[in-house]
Amino acid sequence: MKHIVSIDIGSTFTKGTLLIHKENEVLPGFKILSYRKVPTTTDHLAKGFFDILQSFCKEFNINQEDIEIYYSSSAKGGLNIVAIGIVPDLTLKIARITALSAGAKISASFSYKLSRKAIDSINTINPDIILFTGGTDGGNEEINIHNARMLEKLTIRPVVIYAGNEVISDKIQEILKDFRVIIAQNVLPEIDVMNPDDARSKIREIFLDTIIHGKGLDEISNRIGFMPDPTPFSVFELVKSLPDSVEQIKKVIADVDLNLDPGIESITGIRSIKEYGLKNLKDNLSYDFKNFCLIDLGGATTDFYSNHKDTISDNNVIYKGLPEPIVKRTVEGDLGMRISSQAVVSTAREYIEKELFSCFKDEKEDSILDEFLAYIDKISKNPGYIVDFSGNNLKNESKENIYNKEVIFDRILASACILNAAIRHAGKYRKVYTSDKQMLVQTGKNLKKVRTIIGSGGYLSFMKDFTLTNFIDFGNVSNKNFEIDEISLLPEKIDYFRDDNYLIPIIANLSEKYPVESALLVLSNLIRV
Amino acid sequence: MHTIVLGVIGSDCHAVGNKILEKVFSDAGFKVVNLGVMVSQDEFINAAIETNAKAILVSSLYGQGELDCEGLREKCIERGLDKIILYVGGNLVVGKQDFDYVEKKFKDMGFDRVFKPDVDLIEVTKLLKDDIEQRFGNKDSK
User: Quick check: A141 and B64 CB within 8 A?
Assistant: First the structure.
């Protein structure tokens, strides 16, 4: 039995949990002993971290040296990348997928030849890393060489990861001799072969050995001896490992009568077994966790992850474009519950109005819209604003209650974020008439058969009655319109789960080393809505 | 080794000839980027830019090639592929039209060579090698 602490340093809160790891004859597992959340001190990230760590040590009378520690950080802008490629649909697209899968935030991306203006804006953005791609191996050289010469004019010196046409990598390094240039394998070695993994691990290495120093995270790493991962990197690892781990758990659990096993607590690592844990685990194991999506809806961004191998069996469907990775992350900077809420309104105005008017049938359209916009104004200026998420306090209050309205406003905002993030993450069908029959051209990832969706992030984790019925409605509407339009390949039937208490980022830190235990904890903590 | 981009243009899903072309041109020593069937003009050009291709070989079997191919040369020029060689072949128009007329029509569109369905493919590989050397010189032939 050993003590483990996992801490996630977010931009608003630093959250940590103390667990014990138990070897068990059936399955090893975690048990959560304690959970703590403190505000993040942006100019001193180490403070929240050590506050939490020390409080655990004190509470349970353990030495810091005896604890295994894992941590991640998305504070101070996380990992900030500028992506460069040649063709937007080819190398630039993979460059973006690569950066996002490494947990980065893409502050800008550029295709074809870099202009003077592009260089100015990179100077202003001042990214941690420039991910420089372009060309298949043996392919285009001219544009990359031009781009290298332009990058040389930068006044800043970010790390450059070159993951383009490998034939000219020496030349690129020579032109950018004043930069730290890391050569990674080409993200697109052949026109239909995606290779993001090497560049992804190079990005992680750079994050660990360089960037964290600028964020004040080195104070932590100096004291405890190792580095944090970017939070989305950890979550990506969890999303990647969950299907295999769940299979393993299913195999073992099938032979055990959970009701009779007195050691169940150590199997499941359930913190509040009386409430729901065991029943949850058993229920949840009957759902599909081989194919699933995870939404992390935050104040500034919406992260959408999927783990699904899309195979096309229909002869009438032709796939176009680059093959989609099985595990994929997309991040939407204009979709978020607070900081980005103004942007949500401009992105999804039509949808928001439709929802508003149908939720408030008794009110004048203009006045409810004004109220909604005033609310958006308020929350975008005050990102810490929290409506009473529980909704529990509403029962005895009148319908006109301000909180009641704000609860609905938030729900509409969240639906708009999720729907748009899903549409951008998922692929599309487009009808095409050929000389002998009608065909469907598919671009992107088909999520129609994915049923399981996990909702995480402050809002989704705590909003007990939030569901994703919107998806299905939207799917129906767009199917009707399909006579004239294209359709998004969104999930058709949904089993929606809520990451109760927002544990996923913290569990995610543990998933690389303890995949099965982490999966057990995730599953027993998910609540089907 | 010269890279060439191959595909069947437009809403045309005839796949067999496309596979044969891939085999013949690979055997003749080209690096073939085969985009398969139902390929749009932009897909041809995107692939050619990334792979630094010397030629785009467009097939069309279903009779609507004329519409599909219109503007391809101009688009190549717009997007920086001002030297690329364009070949087209197949059943390029519906009905029986004089081949000389069809050839002229496609050459006017900017294609360097136009082929009948029954052309000897080995001949085409030789023509392509010569055309590439003439246009790009030997120094580019990696």
Answer: no
Q: Which of B11, B43, B52 is opposite residue A432, by nearest beta carbon?
A: B11
Distance CA B112, CA B124 (A): 12
Q: Do B50 and A433 touch (CB under 8 A)?
A: no
Backbone angles phi, psi at A521, to 5 degrees: -65, -45
Euclidean distance between CA atoms A491 and A488, whole angstroms:
9
Edge-to-edge strands of the sheet including A129-132? Answer: A105-110, A80-84, A129-132, A159-162, A181-183
Packed helices A349-359 and A402-425: angle between N→C axes, nearest 10 degrees: 140
pLDDT value for A211: 72
Q: How far is CA A258 from CA A91, A253, A526, in A?
A: 50, 8, 18
pLDDT at site A270: 40
- pLDDT-derived band at B40, boundaries 50, 70, 90: very high
Threshold 0.90, pTM exceeds = no
Measured CA angle at A164 (ends A161, A165), to 5 deg: 140
Residue A135 and residue B52: Cβ atoms within 8 Å? yes
Q: What is the DSSP code string of A13-74?
A: EEEEEEEEEE--SS--EEEEEEEEEEE--TT-HHHHHHHHHHHHHHHHT--GGGEEEEEEE-
> Coil, helix or strand for B24?
helix
Looking at 1.10.940.10, 3.30.750.24, 3.40.50.280, 3.30.43.10, the CATH number of the domain B3-136 comes to 3.40.50.280
A139 Cα to chain B: minimum distance (Å)? 4
| Min Cα–Cα distance to chain B from A136, Å | 5
As annotated, the active-site residues of B are: 12, 14
- Averages of pLDDT over runs of 10 residues in chain A (529 residues) are 90 87 74 85 87 93 92 81 95 94 91 96 95 95 97 97 97 97 96 93 86 78 84 94 92 63 40 52 89 94 94 87 91 90 92 91 92 94 73 48 79 94 92 79 93 94 84 66 73 92 91 90 88
State residue A384's pLDDT score. 79
Quote the tokens at residue A415. 């639906």
Chain A residues within an 8 Å CB radius of B63: 435
Q: Is the pLDDT of residue B140 over 50?
A: no
Structure tokens at A490: 């969104």
